[in-house]
Design brief:
It is a single chain. The protein is elongated and about 105 Å long. The strands form seven sheets. It has a nine-stranded mixed β-sheet with strand order 8-14-13-12-11-15-20-24-25. An eight-stranded mixed β-sheet has the order 26-27-28-29-30-31-33-32, with helices on both faces. By secondary structure, the protein is an alpha/beta fold. The chain has 19 helices and 33 strands. It starts with 8 loop residues before the first helix and ends in a 5-residue tail after the last strand.
Length: 611
């Protein structure tokens, strides 16, 4: 089979032509070097590309007259600096829209420089590890010029070009750059743990760039039957696939296959995708199509952000006026997951930047920053301080949810700022607080029967949920809890009950999340009594779950917290007729004390004694 000739650049292109450079880890550096070597007579060649891992010779100042560069995604500090200095243009655009630019008069291509594998026995070469935009560019360009690289993995899917489609080529081996992510720190690790709680068995995953989204891969080893439909895959996917956690068995779109457009990682990852029948690569127009994404039931999309305001607007490609990355596939994956049956669009980020001096949860977007995802798109925002559930929430509820997961050092300021615009009422004065004794992971999972629930602090964002909980209780349950039947539960009263100084008193709840809503099923409290260093405890449980162990689970945690705080004893007042509640307290060692009230029993537990 005849090989195309080596590039005769002056025959193939001329000054002012627009040239696409293959992206990802498949940048054809040998072609760039050869073009630079033969640059005599060329000026203002327009180079366009996406995210690239490369030495990036084309953005160096010395080639400023040779190349005019436009990038769709800023993934490297060298390119980022060139954009900041005005030497390189940045075009914010979704991956799925780029191919239409090539096919129209917007950005027609004179040439596409791509990296491919050696041809097979039929003359077909594979584009390997980076399909996102390269296939569209190769199909639309007037000339396709290839670097044939024996080190490039041959991948399955829609990745092949016939050697007859190349106007010229260079055979040059080029080791793929290794993408070594930063070691997942403590904050990212906690984010990963929270993210893992949002992923059900059988879910299909998309994970974007960034330590926060990627951290979830370290905490999925006990999950089952996960699938992958992601714009990119990393090393963490390989380990989960080899252990059987990822098997794509329950995917509803391309079952049995990992679907992706690109991979970034170690040589082990590149070896994994090489001729692997379980992994298929497709262009971004297919992988990141919202319609295709939503065809996956239980689609979970996890993407990074640089800033989120208290209404839920997301900034992910800029820091103020400073462009940082790109839009890529985030918008399409967020919307696709939102339209999936059981889907969850999630944004994950560390709560602070600049070594903790700047909050990434902000009252308003920074001047110059661009909103990538509007406030209605994202259902969950996750930081190292927890999960904010935004779907169906009012502006007031969104603000309180997001303040709850902001860094504690900034919560008071955020509440102050958001009250200026009446996003929360005047009576809302308390910021969410952690329970110190719970540590940084403030949510605990409790399994009662065959159902899993979350046990966590009650907080100001629960105002509406507590109100709904109160009105769901029967008059009899209210009478047994309060010794009378309260007339109402106004939002102001509910706000007071959820605004707790958790370092002094304690308020816990057990919740069950039923998409798209969350329900409080039980509440447990104690109030500290300073005069004798004791506390008084009380519970109320939704009727459907009475006798199922919720009060016991709450009491166990309350006793532990009270003991850790050095309180001397815990008291409880229970109506004599409320025998189930009496049994709960007595099963934990509470003793009945003499009382003149025949209708009420006083119980007491000496703390610090092994139960």
């Amino acid at each position: 089979m005849d090989m195309p000739p080596k590039p005769d650049w002056h025959r193939l292109i001329r000054s002012g032509n627009r040239i696409y450079i293959g992206s990802g880890v498949s940048v054809p550096n040998a072609l760039i070097d050869d073009l630079i070597e033969h640059r005599s007579g060329f000026n203002d060649l327009q180079l366009i590309h996406g995210h690239t891992l490369s030495p990036h010779r084309w953005v160096e100042r010395q080639y400023g007259q040779l190349f005019s560069v436009n990038t769709f995604f800023i993934g490297d500090e060298k390119v980022r600096q060139a954009v900041a200095e005005g030497r390189v243009d940045y075009t914010p655009i979704k991956h799925t829209e780029i191919s239409s630019l090539f096919a129209s008069d917007s950005l027609p291509l004179d040439a596409a420089l791509v990296m491919v594998t050696p041809p097979d026995e039929y003359g077909y070469c594979s584009l390997g590890t980076s399909l996102a935009v390269s296939m569209a560019a190769a199909k639309q360009a007037r000339h396709v010029i290839a670097q044939i690289n024996p080190a490039l993995p041959r991948t399955n899917g829609y990745t092949h070009l016939h050697i007859s489609e190349f106007s010229a080529c260079i055979e040059m081996e080029q080791k793929l750059p290794v993408f070594t992510p930063k070691v997942v720190g403590t904050e990212a690790g906690r984010i990963g743990q929270y993210l893992a709680t949002l992923i059900d068995d059988g879910a299909t995953l998309q994970v974007g760039f960034g330590a926060a989204p990627r951290s979830v891969l370290d905490y999925l080893h006990n999950h089952k039957d996960l699938g992958v439909h992601s714009g990119m895959i990393f090393d963490g996917f390989v380990e989960l696939f080899k252990s059987g956690v990822i098997n794509n068995r329950r995917k509803s779109f391309h079952p049995g296959k990992i679907l992706t457009s690109a991979c970034y990682g170690s040589q082990e990852l590149y070896d994994f995708v090489d001729n692997n029948p379980h992994v298929e690569f497709y262009p971004a127009g297919y992988i990141e199509s919202q319609a295709n994404i939503s065809r996956n039931d239980n689609m979970v999309s996890i993407n990074n952000a640089l800033q989120v305001d208290l209404a839920g607007q997301v900034v992910s490609d800029s820091v103020g006026y400073h462009f940082f990355s790109g839009i890529g596939g985030q918008v399409d994956f967020i919307n696709g997951a939102a339209n999936s049956k059981g889907g969850k669009p999630i944004v994950a980020l560390k709560s602070t930047a600049n070594e903790g001096t700047v909050s990434r949860i902000v009252p308003h977007i920074s001047e110059g920053a661009g909103i990538v995802n509007i406030r209605s798109n994202v259902h969950y925002v996750v930081t190292e301080y927890g999960i904010a559930s935004l779907k169906g929430k009012s502006i007031r509820e969104r603000a309180l949810e997001l303040i709850r997961i902001a860094h504690p050092a900034f919560r008071e300021e955020l509440l102050h700022e958001v009250r200026k615009n009446y996003w929360v009422p005047d009576y809302q004065k308390s910021v969410p607080m952690e329970i110190p004794e719970f540590g940084r992971q403030q949510v605990k999972t409790v399994t009662l029967g065959n159902t899993r629930f979350k046990l966590r602090p009650l907080n100001p964002a629960d105002e509406r949920y507590l109100q709904a909980f109160f009105y769901s209780l029967t008059k009899e349950t209210l009478r047994l809890r309060y010794s009378q039947i309260p007339a109402n539960m106004t939002r102001e009263k509910s706000c007071t009950l959820v605004s707790v100084d958790q370092a002094n008193d304690l308020a816990l709840c057990i919740v069950r999340e039923r998409e798209p809503e969350m329900h409080i099923e039980a509440v447990g409290r104690f109030y500290r009594i300073e005069s004798d260093n004791s506390c008084e405890a009380a519970f109320v449980t939704r009727e459907d779950y009475q006798g199922k162990g919720m009060a016991k689970a709450l009491l166990k945690e309350m006793i532990k917290v009270a003991t850790d705080r050095g309180l001397s004893k815990m008291k409880a007042y229970v109506l004599t007729e409320n025998k189930p509640m009496l049994r709960v307290f007595e099963s934990h060692g509470f003793k009945r004390l003499p009382s003149d009230d025949t209708h009420e029993v006083l119980l007491e537990l000496a703390l610090g004694i092994e139960q």
